[in-house]
Amino acid sequence: MGRIKTENNSTRKDVIIKKAAELFKEKGFKAASMRELAEVVGVEAASLYNHIRSKSELLHLICFNVANRYNLMMDEVEAEKTTSLQKIEKIVRFLIGGMVHNFEEVYVSDREWKYLSEPYLSNFQAQRRAYRKRFAAIVEDGIKKKEIKKIDSTTAVLIMLHAISGIESWHRSKQKINGKELEENMITILVGGLKK
Question: What are phi and psi of 102, to 5 degrees?
């Protein structure tokens, strides 16, 4: 056991969060222990507490790091002077990229958030609902402008989000296309399917 190894511009806390996301994804938040995390990180369990307060804090950091990235992207997209379809494509590409390149962190924020403690749990749920509503509003705008087929915007958003969440099975697949091909296929199906 020694010091936490960092690389690039990451901090020791960044390393702990990344390893925690991997462990929570593998075992589930409830089943994972700080002792196991310390082993994975390569330090004594007591050393972890120099950087974080608790396992719950780690879940909070993982979930809200992802939520903050999603919300910043949505702010950026909403401010752009582009078509609704271009906005949707940008959001979908961003979400696919998260599932391909930051899989464990996104997976944990999508599946383990229910273990957040209050007031974080209510805040996170409210952010999830608001994000889906903002996404649906872009779809509705596209329908009004006749760029998008007349469909139920809430259903369209749920289908897109669930399809992107399904990238989990791509990660498990033994024979798979590369991440870029996956993204292009999903854009063709999810965004192309909306075009009027």
Answer: -125, 45
**What pLDDT, on a 0 to 100 scale, did the predictor assign at position 8?**
67
pLDDT of amino acid 176: 82
**Topology at the third CATH level for domain 55-194:** Tetracycline Repressor; domain 2 (1.10.357)
Phi, psi of 148 (to 5 degrees): -125, 145
CA atoms of 83 and 81, how far apart (whole Å): 7
| pLDDT at site 42 | 82
Contact of 103 with 164, CB cutoff 8 Å: no
**For residues 24 and 20, what is the distance between their CA atoms, to the nearest angstrom?**
6
| Domain residue extents for the chain | 12-48, 55-194
Residues near 38 by beta carbon (within 8 Å), at least 6 away in sequence:
44, 45, 47, 48
| Residue whose structure tokens are 């990229």 | 97
- Quickly name the fold that domain 12-48 has: Arc Repressor Mutant, subunit A (1.10.10)
